[in-house]
Write a structure and sequence with these properties.
Blueprint: H1 3-6, E1 9-11, E2 17-19, E3 27-33, H2 42-53, E4 58-64, H3 76-87, H4 106-114, H5 122-131, E5 148-151, E6 157-161, H6 170-180
Parallel strand pairs: 3-4
Antiparallel strand pairs: 1-2, 3-5, 5-6
């Protein structure tokens, strides 16, 4: 695990302390999540991916964020309940925090610095946001909810995927499988 990423202190949604060092040797899919987003159904795919690949060493880590369209307004308890009741989420969820802008949490500052550009239909997604009267972020910032960072077993950032790339997208699955095979 890269010392920079591994040493960043994190808090779980339940308030307990964590860090990526505690997930060393695993392939990590870090996703900023939200409960009231058009992409929220991706929780279902993320849970399915986690269950299918956990035995191979994949962990999905969810980071609730209210950065985009105020689509994660809930408290820690509300987020936990929503995720379990609606999507059966069993992968770890972390404390809600900013993933873009000047107040972004240190993990997201490090992730976007490590891999400033994303794979997938980012420009199409930006245009869609503009069509809704929103001003989308530009790289290296996180574009929207459900952007995905793939972290290799050695702690390096291996790939980054735009929000519209679903958990069952062949490019994402292939990248995960390639990292799991290492």
């Amino acid at each position: 695990m890269s010392t920079d990423l591994a040493s960043i202190p994190l808090a779980r949604l339940d308030g307990s302390a964590d860090s990526l060092a505690n997930h060393a040797g695993k392939v990590l899919l870090v996703v900023n999540v939200a409960s009231k987003c058009g992409l929220t159904p991706q929780y279902e795919g993320l849970e399915a991916l986690f269950k299918a690949k956990a035995a191979d060493g994949l962990e999905v880590l969810g980071f609730p964020a209210n950065d985009f369209g105020a689509q994660e307004p809930g408290t820690a308890e509300e987020i936990t309940e929503f995720c379990k009741l609606n999507y059966g989420v069993s992968f770890p969820l972390f404390a809600k925090g900013d993933v873009s802008g000047p107040a972004k949490q240190p993990l997201y500052a490090a992730l976007t610095e490590a891999l400033p550009a994303k794979q997938g239909p980012a420009e199409e997604f930006r245009e869609k946001l503009k069509g809704y009267g929103m001003t989308p972020t530009q790289d290296p910032e996180v574009l929207w909810n459900f952007e995905k960072f793939l972290i290799a077993r050695d702690g390096t950032v291996a790939a980054r995927f735009a929000p519209g790339v679903t958990p069952d997208d062949p490019a994402l699955v292939a990248a995960i499988e390639a990292e799991l095979a290492k």
